[in-house]
Structure formats: structure tokens, C-alpha cells
Design goal:
The chain has 7 helices and 11 strands. It is of the alpha/beta class. Helix 1 (16-27) runs parallel beside helix 2.
Length: 240
């Protein structure tokens, strides 16, 4: 048996091929998996569980089919979809997990994160992250009408794109000291995350620890397959 890990699908009506690829995964390989973990930025934007667009309903219904058949699905908040809540979980059968979370996977402890918390060199983003993850900010945002929330989300995304275009690439990548701190804090030697869109398996200097970075789904998708043997792989597949 195998456990699957994916992240950064950024599901959006403008990218139907990505949605189809995800639905194919749910109706295919995921049925026989021990579990499916979605490590954040599942949606391009999530403005609240009451946003019942056609895409959202299609995805929720497909997840419910899978979880009803017995495959557990665990979802972690990303920087685009941190407002996914209990209503979504009840409708889809998914379970929200904290960022970070340590799981025991076939006898090995593995640290799971979305990955944005590791990018500590991007001080402007880290300040925004702290603000928007507060309950007060979220309550204020969710108290507004759905159309107003859509406009605010669109505005924030445009501002983020502008800000990121003026940042050096290394600022938006993980901070190595923070990575090593997390390995030590959680007493693990394997970490899986997404967010940076830089898929790779890193062997960290002066350590036997490995950090697996999932890629985003665009023209191709990325999945970590972790079988009971422990010989995990990071694999890319084409999205037509």
C-alpha cells in the first residue's frame, strides 16, 4: 500500500485541465491508497466555505466519493486557502490537519508543512501571514458579503503579484536555518512540503535529513508516493 502527497494544485476555473487531472487521481490511484495528503494551496483562492461555485462543488463531491469509499484525505491550509473550514470538511469527508504536523508513516516520523512558514527571509510576507491567520482578521473578512470577498481576494492577489515581482528569488525560498531548526524541534529526519514551486529532494548538509519539495500543478503535476517499504519517490506527470 502507498500514501500519496500533493500540494499547490491552485484549482481554478481558468485551468480545467488541472481539475481534470485531480479528479482522475481521485477516481484512480487514490482509491487504493492508504491516505491522500493535500499540503496547502489546493485552491487558487478560498474565500469561505459558503462559496458554492461549480468548481468548488465538483471538487467537494469528488472528495466525498473517495472518502466514503474509505480513503482518508487530509488537508492542510496554504497561503491561498487558509479559510477552508469545518463546513468544507463535513461536506467532503476530509480532515483538516495543522501546519506543521508530524505523522507516523509506516514506522517513520515525517514532518508535513505547507512550506510558507519556512520562508522567513521574506519579512513582508511573514508579517502578512501572521495578520491573516489571526482569528480577528478572518472573522472580519468572513463577515463581509461573498461578492465583496471576491473583490478583496482579487485585489490582494494583484498586490501580492506586484510585490513578488520586485523580490529576489532567494528571498521567496526557504531559509536553511529555519529548515534545520524545524528538523531539530520536531526530532525528524524527513520533511515534506510545497509552496515554493521548486520540486526537489534535498539532502541537508551535515545531516542525513531529507527535505522533499512538491511542485505546483500546471502543465505537469507532482506527487510523492510513499509505500510501506519506505522507499518514497517524488514523481512528475504530464497534464494535457
Amino acid at each position: 500500500m502507498t500514501t500519496l502527497f500533493i500540494s499547490d494544485l491552485h484549482l481554478d476555473p481558468s485551468r480545467p485541465a488541472v481539475t481534470r487531472a485531480f479528479l482522475d487521481l481521485l477516481s484512480g490511484e487514490a482509491i487504493s491508497a492508504d491516505a491522500l495528503y493535500i499540503l496547502g494551496d489546493f485552491f487558487e483562492v478560498w474565500i469561505g466555505d459558503d462559496d458554492d461555485t461549480e468548481l468548488n462543488q465538483t471538487v467537494i463531491e469528488a472528495l466525498k466519493v473517495l472518502t466514503t469509499k474509505g480513503t482518508p484525505v487530509y488537508i492542510m491550509h496554504g497561503n491561498r486557502d487558509f479559510l477552508i473550514g469545518e463546513q468544507f470538511c463535513q461536506q467532503s469527508g476530509c480532515q483538516l490537519i495543522a501546519d506543521p504536523t508530524v505523522i507516523n508513516l509506516y514506522g517513520r516520523n515525517v514532518l508535513l508543512l505547507h512550506g510558507d512558514s519556512l520562508c522567513t527571509d521574506d519579512t513582508d510576507y511573514m508579517a502578512f501571514r501572521q495578520q491573516c491567520r489571526s482569528q480577528a482578521w478572518q472573522n472580519e473578512f468572513l463577515s463581509q458579503g461573498i461578492e465583496q470577498r471576491r473583490q478583496l481576494a482579487k485585489q490582494m492577489r494583484a498586490e501580492s503579484k506586484t510585490a513578488n515581482s520586485n523580490k529576489a528569488d532567494d528571498i521567496m525560498d526557504v531559509n536553511q536555518h529555519e529548515v534545520l531548526r524545524m528538523f531539530t524541534q520536531h526530532d525528524v529526519d524527513l520533511m515534506i512540503h510545497g509552496h515554493t514551486h521548486r520540486p526537489a529532494i534535498h539532502q541537508h548538509k551535515d545531516s542525513h535529513a531529507k527535505r522533499v519539495v512538491l511542485g505546483d500543478w500546471h502543465n505537469s503535476g507532482w506527487v510523492v508516493r510513499f509505500p510501506t517499504s519506505g522507499e518514497f519517490t517524488l514523481e512528475e506527470f504530464s497534464i494535457s
